[in-house]
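Incident log, structure service

09:12 report received: a user says their structure output differs between two submissions of the same chain.
09:20 pulled the input from the user's history:
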Amino acid sequence: MTVAAPSAETRQVLLILSAGNFVIGMGAFIVIGLIEPVAASFSISPAEAGWLLTVYAISYAILSPTLTALTGQIGRRRVLTVALGLFALATALGSIAATPALLFASRILAAAGAGLFTPNTAAVAAALSAPESRGRALASVFTGLTLAQVAGVPAGSFIAYSLGWRPAPLLVTALALPCLWLIWTRVPSGLPFQPTRLADLRRVLARPLQMLAILFTTTFLGGIYVLYTYIAPLLSSQMGYGGTAITVALLILGIGAVIGNLTGGRLVDRIGPHRTLTALVIAQIILLPLFSLLPFSELLLMLLLFLWSTAGYSFNAPQQMRLLSLAPAEANVVLALNAAAIYIGAAAGSAIGGAILQTYGAQMLGIAAAGVAVLALIQFRISAHLSR
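09:34 re-ran on a clean worker, output below:
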């Protein structure tokens, strides 16, 4: 099938939105590299500093669908500008926070901005694109997020250990400023969008079929994060890896994430969301148990890391396409709930992984993650059957 190329104006908008998501991703992921310096700065434990991630995830999950519904009558350019501006301001405030409480408050504000910005970029990308190229359009605006994962953690860690942790959030704010200018001056004011109200959020929450489809995101990503959160201790204990080797492994995962994001967009445009998602969850069931067979050769490990990351990050575009087909009239709300489900899945998977690590050891993480992936496949098949 021949797919019509998007117009130059549409490509420009998608690129600008992807750049905005890169800033959002940097602000989210950069904190991972700041945990120990922040803990030392405020004389708290690393575990307490780690709550910066948890507070952000919980706030995002609650505020994203709520704020998206409340702003559903406002033009998208204005919403995107305010959302990214709030995120940039909150990140800057975090860099000058004098107490842990103020730093945590800044993360709540940042989550509000991110939770309003990213789902709306997906909704705009879907609205601007023809149905046969919508998967690639969704993947393109999420490319920024995946690239941020590759750059955010090492950049944050390098800055924090070289200059202290406070300049790192300021880097995110500096990157946000040109994106704000581009959104306001280059993105058309009349972007298409489906107006929504808080009643639309209540309506979607009351529909079991749509919520089951949205919660598939939580289960699928929960299985991934059982392992991903603790990939460093796994490679350390089973492969004897130190800091440099683990950094290389994380880089391989990041490259796989970028390629997977683009691959998912192409797959869904070719074979549709249901077949794509079925293939991806089966791939997780096959690949995850292999991590419980470590150690094996470094070449095989790097190949496994690449394939696993590629399959995992191919998920975004087909899942969003599926949700849009189930609730086209509430696109903004459904995509915001899906974004919330991502963070819930990450938090739940991390909690399960932590319990497995503490009780059974790192070698059981792959098997446990595969078990969650099996549940995801069962959930998906039930949801797909009911939707037909």
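09:41 both user submissions now match this output. Likely a transient worker issue. Closing.
09:42 reviewer note: The mean pLDDT is 87. The two ends are 25 Å apart (CA to CA).
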